Design the sequence.
């Protein structure tokens, strides 16, 4: 039997994570989160996550530091962080971005600093 459930999440009322992310729709193997109006900042220490991340910049600018590479992200850009890759972000201008993680980042408390 196929799963025919439907999920709708209104970002204004969605749960907020400890890093400022808003959790959007989430399925069994994929989840979305919103980073809204994140202020410019220095990068956090590098981390390697147990999930793959793809993202899209809606507004603002950031740098993605990934395994010794630096990628400038502008509005309309998308990116991939492979599972297990050491990375961090530096926000250059107030940023709004959407990310999707597979499997869902928030499962088993994996979505933390």
Sequence:
């Amino acid at each position: 039997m196929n799963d025919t459930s439907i999920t709708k999440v209104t970002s204004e009322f969605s749960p907020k994570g400890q890093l400022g992310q808003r959790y959007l729709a989430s399925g069994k193997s994929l989840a979305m989160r919103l980073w809204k109006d994140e202020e410019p900042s220095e990068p956090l220490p590098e981390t390697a996550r147990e999930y793959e991340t793809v993202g899209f910049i809606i507004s603002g600018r950031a740098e993605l530091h990934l395994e010794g590479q630096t990628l400038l992200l502008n509005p309309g850009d998308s990116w991939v962080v492979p599972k297990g890759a050491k990375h961090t972000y530096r926000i250059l201008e107030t940023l709004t971005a959407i990310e999707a993680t597979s499997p869902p980042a928030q499962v088993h408390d994996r979505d933390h600093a």
About this structure: The first strand starts at residue 22 and ends at 26.
